[in-house]
Structure formats: structure tokens, C-alpha cells
Specification:
Number of strands: 12
Largest sheet: 5 strands, mixed
Helix content: 40-55%
Shape: globular
Distance between the termini: 48 Å
Order of helices and strands: HEEHEHHHHEHHHHHHHEEEEHHEEEE
Length: about 425
């Protein structure tokens, strides 16, 4: 890591005279972030139209800013505007004491015991999905994993697996991604196609969510995560979650949970299809009742394609990052996607090597940040890893998936990092 002179702004590309780096970011944001970091260093100033963005791609600096100096940071207005219309005031968008109170209430819901209670559901729904694939058929594995993880989330959260909920949730997620893709935020009251779609999808989901909340309050005798949320208590004496707060946390968990797991599963199956010898080794290990290599596949997939691939913060005051000056109110981007491909931290950083994880070696904290870090670290990280492992352990011994062609699949940077244009794969039953 090369530090700058104190007080200097970070270096960065000049870009287009009017648009700056907006054309490159719009065309391929993940690759653009890698390119500018490699050219200009760990802290880069990017001009995006009339505003500046400050990219931090070094893992140690990311940890410093979002964990050790978390008090200097807040969620950006852009993120709150983009996500708030869908997710309301949940863990992703809340600040300060309200964020801490929600985290105290929500985190115990994602305990290992409650996750273990959902494993049978994950396995049963995966079996059902596999049975729907005819031998020799071509399936869009990204879409299949999105539908599967959506149904897993709906069942784990609500004990509901019906087409009405799945259809409503799918439209909810699609409309949210439409909003996230915007290069600039547009106020919710402007009647754009995306805003109209957002309002319709939120209304549809709200009807279902509040009905479920009312039913669980009347009859709490189930083991779904919704019941645990309703019964959550604050050890520090704060109030329990209201219906609106429960709705907002449900939508946050629902969207973040199924979108991130679906993308990670698609990437894992893509990587295993490109490395069939590794897939065979995992199958042999599973047959022997072991899962160490499978766990390595999951961790290596999350390294190469982290769910929280980029996120932003705004400094509450002027700050110095890696020796460079960043002004109060600026939009700062932090990218685990870039940090995870740092060749000084990871030998053969671009290569898929699950064996990295099969020893007792543990990466440095700043080298591996698939779910973020600090007080805003994803509370669903254990659930996501358990779900990804459970689905792969059930799927790999039963089917072999191969790519339709040899063209490399490029990532698309939406709310999550997913295969651009889908992921068509051939199904061969074993």
C-alpha cells in the first residue's frame, strides 16, 4: 500500500470532460474499480458527472474506516434513497442508536441453533428443484438459484412456500435492482417507470407481510424466523420491534438473504464447471462424509465474488485515508471485490484455489471481507454460508453441470455481484 501526502486529494483518472468516469462505470463497474486501483493505488478519486467518488480498495484501509473509525462514517444519502423505498428502516439503512437497538434484537434470531432448524428445509427444497431439471436440459442456473433461495428464504422466514409470495418477492427484488442501477438517485415522487414499479411491488409485498405478521402475533407457535423476530427482546431495556420495524427487517433479510446466496451459488457452480476435477474431488469427499473441501469451495467463491462487493459511506467530518484527504459529505466506495484480488495478499489472486482453505491458515482480517466488517457487518453471514454449503452438498452428488460454451462469464455489479446475462448450463444426472 502506497500512502499519499497528508492533505492531498487522491489521484484518479480524468475521464470524459463532462461525464468523468461515468461511461466506464456504467459499462462495467467491477472491472473499472479493479483497473483504476491497479493504475492509481489503494485510494482513488473518480469523477462521476458533477460529483467525486472516493474508492478505497485496500482491505486494511477498509477495516480502518468501517470498523475502527466507524463513528466517522454514516450511510450515504444515495444508499438510503436507493434502498429505503423498498427496505424501509432496517439494519441496512438505520443509523446510530436505532441501528444498535435493531442489531441487538435481530442478531440472536440468526443464531446457529435457528439456522440449524432450517437445514431440512434447505435440503428438501433443493431436492425438489433438482427433480424439476430433465436430464440433458439446459437451465439458467442463476435464475434457478434465485428461485431456490427465494423459496428457502420465504420458508425460513415465514413458513410459506407458495407461488403468490414467490412472485411478489421476485418482482420486489427486480424493482429494487432497477433502482440500484441508477447512476444518480431520483426522488421517489417523480413518476418514472422505475418508481411506479417500485411502489406497486412494495404495496404487493406489504399486504402479504403485514398479514403474516398479524397471523404470527395471533398464533406464535412456529419456529420460523418471523416468530423469533416478534418475540425478540432487548437486553438493554429497549422496546420490542413494532409491526413496521418487523416488516422492514423482514424485507431486509429477505432481499439480502436470497439475492446474495443465489449469486454465490451461481458463481460456485460456474467455477466448479470450469474446474471439473475439483468438482469430482468434492463429490468424493462428500461420499466419504467430509466437507472440508466443500467449505473451501464456498470460501474461495466468496473471495472471488463477494456478496458485499462494494458499499458506500459518507464521512461526518473531513478525514484522511491512506494519507489522502477526503472531505466531509463525500461519497466513499469500499470494495472487498478489489481487496480480495490484491496479489500482495493472495498468491494467484485471480485463480480459483479452494485448497487455500483446507489447512489451519487464516487470512488477515483486511484480506477477506465477504460480508463487510465492523458494527454493520452482515448479521446473516452464517445463514448464507450454511445455505450455500447445504445446497451444494445436496446438488453436486446428483447432477453434473457444464457450461454451454467456453466464453468467460463476466460479473455484473448490481446490489449483488452476479453473472452478466444469466448462466445457462447443461444438466447431466449422475
Amino acid at each position: 500500500m502506497v500512502a499519499g501526502m497528508a492533505g492531498e486529494p487522491p489521484p484518479g483518472p480524468r475521464g470524459h470532460w463532462l461525464l468523468g468516469s461515468l461511461p466506464e462505470i456504467s459499462r462495467d463497474m467491477p472491472q473499472t474499480l479493479l483497473d483504476v486501483t491497479r493504475e492509481y493505488g489503494p485510494v482513488v478519486r473518480l469523477r462521476v458527472g458533477p460529483t467525486d467518488m472516493y474508492l478505497v480498495g485496500d482491505g486494511d484501509l477498509i477495516v480502518e474506516m468501517i470498523s475502527r473509525r466507524a463513528g466517522d462514517m454514516r450511510k450515504s444519502d444515495r444508499t438510503r434513497q436507493s434502498l429505503g423505498g423498498h427496505l424501509g428502516d432496517g439494519l441496512v439503512t438505520l443509523e446510530g442508536e436505532e441501528h444498535r437497538r435493531h442489531r441487538r434484537l435481530v442478531q440472536p434470531v440468526m443464531h446457529r441453533q435457528s439456522i440449524a432448524a432450517q437445514l431440512a428445509t434447505m435440503v428438501a427444497l433443493t431436492d425438489k428443484r433438482i427433480e424439476s431439471w430433465p436430464d440433458g436440459s439446459t437451465q439458467d442456473i442463476l435464475r434457478e438459484m434465485q428461485d431456490l433461495t427465494l423459496r428457502i428464504a420465504a420458508t425460513a422466514l415465514f413458513r410459506v412456500d407458495d407461488d403468490a409470495m414467490v412472485a411478489a418477492a421476485r418482482e420486489f427484488a427486480a424493482s429494487l435492482n432497477t433502482i440500484v442501477r441508477r447512476p444518480f438517485p431520483i426522488p421517489g415522487w417523480v413518476p418514472t417507470r422505475g418508481n411506479v414499479r417500485r411502489r406497486a411491488s412494495v404495496r404487493r409485498v406489504d399486504v402479504l407481510a403485514y398479514d403474516l405478521i398479524a397471523r404470527r402475533r395471533a398464533d406464535p407457535g412456529t419456529d420460523d424466523l418471523l416468530s423469533l423476530l416478534i418475540g425478540a427482546t432487548d437486553d438493554e431495556g429497549g422496546p420490542e420491534l413494532s409491526d413496521v420495524e418487523i416488516r422492514d427487517e423482514l424485507m431486509t433479510m429477505f432481499f439480502a438473504g436470497h439475492e446474495t446466496s443465489a449469486a454465490a451459488l451461481a458463481w460456485a457452480l460456474y467455477l466448479l464447471a470450469r474446474h471439473q476435477e475439483m468438482a469430482e474431488q468434492v463429490r468424493a469427499e462428500l461420499a466419504a462424509g467430509e466437507r472440508r473441501l466443500l467449505a473451501g469451495v464456498v470460501k474461495e467463491t466468496l473471495r472471488l465474488y463477494p456478496p458485499a462487493w462494494v458499499f458506500d459511506r459518507t464521512p461526518r467530518r473531513d478525514v484522511t485515508v491512506g494519507g489522502y484527504a477526503v472531505p466531509r459529505g463525500a461519497n466513499m466506495l469500499f470494495s472487498p471485490w478489489v481487496a480480495h484480488r490484491d496479489p500482495s495478499r493472495w498468491p494467484a489472486a485471480e485463480e480459483f484455489r479452494p485448497q487455500r482453505w483446507t489447512t489451519d491458515w487464516v487470512p488477515a482480517r483486511g484480506a477477506y471481507l465477504p460480508f463487510g466488517d465492523g458494527p454493520r457487518m452482515c448479521v446473516g453471514n452464517r445463514f448464507a454460508e450454511a445455505e450455500i454449503q447445504a445446497v451444494l452438498a445436496e446438488l453436486l452428488p446428483r447432477v453434473q453441470l457444464s457450461l454451454v460454451d467456453d466464453a468467460p462469464v463476466r460479473p455484473e455489479g448490481d446490489a449483488t455481484l452476479r453473472p452478466r446475462g444469466g448462466l445457462p448450463m447443461l444438466v447431466h444426472r449422475l
